[in-house]
Design goal:
About 55% of the residues lie in helices and about 15% in strands. The chain has helices spanning about 1-15, 65-95, 100-120, 130-135, 140-160, 175-190; strands at about 15-25, 25-30, 35-40, 50-55. It has a 4-stranded antiparallel β-sheet with strand order 3-2-1-4. Helix 1 (about 1-15) packs antiparallel against helix 2 and helix 2 runs antiparallel to helix 3 (about 100-120). The N and C termini lie far apart (about 45 Å). About 25% of the residues are buried.
Length: about 190
């Protein structure tokens, strides 16, 4: 869980995003109005945590880094666990019974990590947001821009600010519909 959220954090930084909230297993780091992080306990939309971001530039920020960086860190975790398990197994075969604990820790970590990773990369929305549903969607550049615009609008609304002018998209994709809805609701509010 920690490695997954660390991957989202590092991927967000690489992709050109500012972290607004990082939550892992209920422990939350939330950026305050003074731009400093505060440690709190909070809810999240995910199986183990959630990283909320705001793009620094709607045109240039790339959300794909937030999808693929957890995979890179997970592969590093797998490699470490496999090495630890093989070293422990060799030591146990040589008669050192004390090596069962590192072997079991690595085995449990690898098993739980695989389950979390499979859940997170399942290519559809499950009971919460996951990265798998975004993999195909982010292949469309219009979706990437609309996704970034949605994040900016959500951040402004969460802080009680006016959303301002929002783009209206002619093409219908997963995120352009949501962004057009923001413009529609704003127009309805202004009558």
């Amino acid at each position: 869980a920690v490695i997954l959220e660390l991957g989202h954090f590092l991927g967000a930084k690489m992709g050109g995003y500012k972290i607004s909230t990082l939550t892992c297993l209920g422990i939350q780091f939330k950026r305050g109005k003074d731009d400093k992080f505060k440690l709190t306990v909070g809810g999240f939309d995910g199986i183990t945590g959630e990283t909320k971001v705001v793009p620094l530039n709607a045109e240039k920020s790339n959300p794909r880094h937030m999808i693929y960086m957890p995979l890179v860190l997970f592969l590093v975790e797998v490699a470490i666990c496999v090495v630890l398990m093989s070293v422990s197994k060799s030591a146990m075969n040589a008669g050192n019974g004390n090596m069962i604990t590192p072997y079991l820790i690595a085995l449990v970590d690898l098993t739980v990590g695989c389950l979390i990773f499979l859940y997170n990369t399942f290519p559809a929305a499950l009971d919460s947001k996951n990265d798998g549903q975004y993999i195909a969607i982010f292949n469309n550049e219009t979706n990437v821009k609309a996704f970034n615009e949605i994040l900016i609008a959500n951040d402004k609304m969460a802080r009680g600010e006016d959303v301002g002018e929002t783009p209206i998209y002619d093409s219908v994709t997963d995120f352009t519909v949501k962004m057009n809805d923001v413009a529609l609701y704003k127009a309805l509010q202004e009558k």
